[in-house]
Specification:
about 300 residues; alpha+beta; 6-stranded antiparallel β-barrel; elongated
Length: about 300
């Protein structure tokens, strides 16, 4: 396979980046602006790239360039990144999306006890990423893997970043009903705070929905009960004492949906609904235990090293 000189590789990489973004023919001027080169330089390089079968050109005022399949192969990129696969975004430490997309993630030196290294194959402005900076990569489409890493090195010629992993997490694609507690304890609206306190203590739970004729009216929590005991108002009904209507989530909603809702509403539990009826409760602890499930399995006595 033909080898590219640095200028040819830079121009071809820029062409692919622009083409994947706009899904249309790319002008030489656009390539020049992206890589800070003169438009004439880009035009002078294109005949060689066309001769190698890496670029297709359309003449005329509405013409331009597009990468051939061979261009992806010579750069080690998956063909037609955005047609068949979804490229993975990159963010800086402030959460701003960078002009860079990751096309492959390769774990290296995974047996090192000091550091886990990841090699990122990327398209975009790699030179803008400072060595030593923190970046966030992901989520990946299927495994929903997110990686927080410190940039150790970069190879602009081959479109590669080497990062040391700081944290890494994958959120399973799973309906919330699979992890929710199905032992749903409800209270009637006229139950006193005192009796509700006894019930929550006996059942070992921190909250119970207030339900009448199948309709959810509110939520009584241990925080509500503690506040009312301090105020000497423990003879109130739970309906008068409840501080909020419970946040709900559909039983078939994804775990990630539940996490985002808890974060947005700044709460630690959601009432799980199915066909308009409450069927359980899901808490942050339930989600954490699901994330820790692989570690729990590996620690079982039956698993041998």
């Amino acid at each position: 396979m033909e080898s590219l000189n640095p200028t040819q590789r830079e121009i071809l990489t820029a062409l692919i980046q622009l083409y994947e973004k706009k899904r249309d023919l790319v002008k030489s001027k656009e390539i020049g602006e992206l890589i800070n080169r003169d438009e004439g330089t880009v035009r002078n390089i294109m005949p060689a790239l066309r001769a190698m079968g890496l670029v297709e050109a359309i003449a005329g005022p509405k013409g331009g360039y597009m990468p051939a399949r061979k261009a992806y192969e010579i750069l080690g990129l998956p063909p037609m990144v955005t047609r068949k696969t979804r490229a993975v975004p990159v963010y800086n430490a402030e959460g701003s999306k960078l002009d860079l997309i990751v096309t492959d993630i390769v774990f290296k030196d995974v047996f090192n006890e000091e550091i886990c290294l990841v090699l990122l194959k990327a398209i975009g402005n790699i030179s803008a990423i400072e060595t030593g900076s923190i970046i966030y990569v992901g989520p990946t489409p299927a495994g929903r893997l997110m990686i927080e890493g410190k940039v150790i090195g970069r190879d602009e010629l081959h479109g590669e970043l080497l990062i040391g992993v700081v944290t890494m997490v994958s959120i399973p694609k799973e309906p919330i009903k699979n992890i929710a507690s199905r032992k749903l304890v409800t209270v009637s609206p006229d139950l006193s705070v005192r009796e509700a306190a006894k019930l929550l203590y006996r059942e070992g739970i921190r909250a119970a929905p207030i339900v009448k004729d199948g309709e959810v009216l509110g939520l009584i929590t241990t925080s509500d009960i503690a506040r009312l005991y301090v105020e000497g108002m423990y003879n109130l009904s739970v309906m008068d004492a409840a501080s909020r209507v419970p946040a709900v989530i559909d039983a078939n909603a994804d775990i990630l949906d539940a996490m985002e809702k808890m974060e947005t509403e700044r709460i630690g539990r959601l009432l799980v609904m199915e066909n308009g009826k409450p069927i359980g409760m899901v808490t942050r602890t339930d989600i954490l235990l699901r994330l820790l499930k692989p570690f729990k399995i590996l620690r079982q006595p039956s698993i041998k090293a």
